[in-house]
Amino acid sequence: MSCSKLISSFLFSLTLVLLLQTSFGADPLSHSCSSSENFTSNTPYESNLKTLINSLIYKTPSTGFGVGSVGQYQNQQAYGLALCRGDVSASECKTCVSEATKEILNLCPYNKGAIIWYDNCLFKYLDTDFIGKIDEANKFSLWNVQNVSDPNMFNYMTKELLSVLAYKASVDPKMYASGKLLMIGESEKVYGLAQCTRDITSMDCKKCLDDAISELPSCCDGKQGGRVVGGSCNIQYEIYPFVKE
Questions:
Q1: Could you tell me the pTM of the whole model?
Q2: At what angle do helices 90-107 and 44-63 cross, to 10 degrees?
Q3: C-beta neighbour count of 62 within 10 angstroms
Q4: Is the dihedral of CA 73, 47, 198, 135 positive or negative?
Q5: CB contact at 8 A, 242 and 233
């Protein structure tokens, strides 16, 4: 095969991959299906869950957060929550929540509770009232495999930045804060993010974020990037800008 044909073939393959990625959207970071009882098709719970999902898809993008419940009788009520990252646009938020609701129903088709996380949003539902309570059950960590040159200094500066952002997020109406910090004696910066779901109190938000920060040494010690993600709050840091200012 000639060089020009190889290049054309490569460009076609690359274009196809990009089109497929655009069509299917980003992959979720993680998900969890509840171990509580399942529901069956054509039941009041399924109907209430679908109504709840449509409601959250509609109302979440305008503010980046939505919460609600549908149903009047025990074992038929569905409670849900959707949160978009504080820097994403309303259209990006709607796209993410719509994708999240479809994907979680595919991954956990008959579970009465589930949660899914993307870079831009999270979506959660359950058959019991979880609104206003810190979610201690759902949590995971991610990290960059690359190490920094001075782990002790980097860890210290990262914790300082995230602690400041945790306080700012806890008192912010959107419960979201992002920022950056120039490393002492270095030209590099560390960028961070802290965010809570807005159903919990300011005090609980701060506690949730502080607990997440305390987990960084066990997952992300000396790593160039890391995050602790939960059902009520999340933190993230990187050595590059990853949020919109």
A1: 0.87
A2: 160
A3: 11
A4: positive
A5: no
Helical segments of 35-174, H only: 44-63, 90-107, 151-171
Enter the tokens of residue 24.
Answer: 């299917």
Q: Which segments of the chain are extended strands (E)?
A: 30-33, 65-70, 78-84, 114-117, 121-126, 139-143, 176-182, 189-196, 226-230, 233-238
Rounded Cα distance, 213 and 216, in Å: 5
Cα separation, 127 vs 75, in Å, equals: 7
R_g over Cα of the chain: 20
88-146 pLDDT tens trace? 999 999 999 999 999 999 999 999 999 999 999 999 999 999 999 999 999 999 999 99
Sheet with 139-143, side-by-side order of all strands: 139-143, 226-230, 233-238, 189-196, 176-182
Question: Exposure of 35 by Cβ count < 10 A (0-12 exposed, 13-18 middle, 19+ buried)?
Answer: exposed
Distance, CA of 224 to CA of 221 (rounded, Å):
9
